[in-house]
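Subject: Sanity check before I submit

Could someone independently write out the structure tokens for this chain? I want to compare against mine line by line before I put it in a report. The sequence has 147 residues.
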Amino acid sequence: MADWSARFFAFLIDALVVGVPWIVVLSFFVKRSATISSSLNSTASFTRGAWAVLGIGFIAVLGYFSFLDGSPRGQTIGKRALNIAVKDLRTGAPIGAGRALGRRFFFFATYMAFIFPFFLNGLWPLWDPLRQAWHDKVVASCVVRVR
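---
Independent answer below. Compare away.
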């Protein structure tokens, strides 16, 4: 099984790969306004375009993880860089795009449910005997070291 630090750094790489382009595109759609007195009082508001970019970006991120984690290699760019992959817990085979989508959806659900469950989910592999996070347990997957 992959150790927690490899999973964490793979997640950081993937967060940069999908997050930076999303933020750049989103920044073009956020309307900024500032008071005349000071730029410290500036505010940002979301336009319809910004909400659309948020929605499209969310779907793109789900797709990124679903198709790559569910691929025959079971690796996103971050996982490939750290030589780890998502596999079926029982057979060691790829989990497929559907299970990978469920896995990532549950991961996002812990984030949306408040920050505490998200961090608990992320830290769970530190003490779990199979080094699984909750989103692994839900779809019976595991993250393993590969060559």
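---
OP: Matches mine. For the report I'm noting this point. The chain is about 55% helix and 10% strand.
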